[in-house]
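Trying the structure run again after the queue cleared.
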Amino acid sequence: MLLSKRCVLSLLILTLCLNMDCKFVYGASGYNPANSEIEAYKQLEAMPEKDSRELQIQDMLILFLLPHLNEKLAEEYADILKGGSPELYPYFVDVIKTERVNGFRGFDLRITLQAVPTVGPHIPVGEDRFTYQISPVVGVKLIQFEHLKGPNKADFPPNYQDLLR
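Done. Tokens:
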């Protein structure tokens, strides 16, 4: 049996979806499969191919900061979403920038993170940037929050649009 190119591509994407968490959902109104496939491939290309000490420490830091991120997201999305706050998974958080505020071996640090909160089966509801100060004096303190985009109702599947206000 000969399969068409489109069928083979669909099977490939389905296989990828079964082996990783995808950021797109089939059947959404306003959904453009071509754009979603491109985004999925970009994500695959950007993912580290092997573990490293730096990646492990970065992941531990994100896990440590996750409750702080979720607290701010619950506050920011309260007027946008009905019935709760979005979910934030550590693999949808990227470290954008880190810096020592007070020089070499100083323990007043600043970290900027970019996150994609989701609802339901990993439907993105936005993109947000957080900057935290971390030091022995202040502990963990949010110093800047920026809502970059979303949610866009047209990107939501029809059966999840009722989650938006």
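Strands lie at 93-100, 109-115, 118-119, 123-124, 127-135, 139-149. Worth checking whether this holds up in the mutant runs.
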